Amino acid sequence: MKRIVLEQHHDGTIDSQGHSATPASPNPEQPQPRTPTPSSSRQQRQRQTIPPELIEIVVPSLKVGAAAGACGIFAGATAGIIRSAPTVLFSAFAGVQWFTLGFSYYGARQVALNYFGGREAETAPRDKLKASTVAGGFAGLSGGLLRGPRNILPGILMFSLYGAGGQTVLNWMDAKRAARAAESPSTQSNGFWSRWSPLKRLSDQDYEKILEERLLGVEADIAMVDDHIRELLESEKKAKGGSPGADKGSSVPPDRE
């Protein structure tokens, strides 16, 4: 009767005949497949579910709303100090209200621009005017909901007028700037403070005009000097011609001849 001895190796696997079945060593050059972690798979699902157009609208709107809310906090605190009222309450309410106005206005304007044509609407003055008007009305609606139902219609009307008026002014400024750039594109400088700068950017034509003016000035000075020299020579000739014996070249006075 044969006695079968089952030897257990370090990996703990034993075949039917008593020999251990060692697994094949993995090839170090062959990349091992990565098992996705639950957190990474969850993030990928969230990215797939959220459309990129919504992200492009919401994230900038949050930034604009945060900047407006910060300004509202300072404005509310200033108003509370002037009125001798609770500063924290005034600043918190003003911050929330300004954040809502900035977020709703910018987000509604981006949605309206995308609806009117996207990138092409951002350069069309009429589309920008319509988008700003609609965004102003939506911001007035949001602000009216915070202040009470009675303020909804006045808020929509006033903020629509504000949006349309502000965009009209911006369109006029853009048209004026484009006309100036078309007339002299090389002499236009960017920035607000460049108007008060003592330095001025010149084009090649302006520089040539300046050089021509300076050259004409130098030529005029040379002509004046030539005239002055000519006058001095003529006066010297007259002085020599008036003295007796100057034409003959004799140094003897005429009374001694």
Automatic annotation (TrEMBL):
Pro residues bias (residue ranges): 25-36
The protein's name: Uncharacterized protein
Organism in which the protein naturally occurs: Canariomyces notabilis
Stretch list, region Disordered: 1-50, 234-257
Bias (Polar residues): 14-24
Basic and acidic residues composition-biased segments: 1-13
Transmembrane annotation, as ranges: none
Compositionally biased residues, Low complexity: 37-50
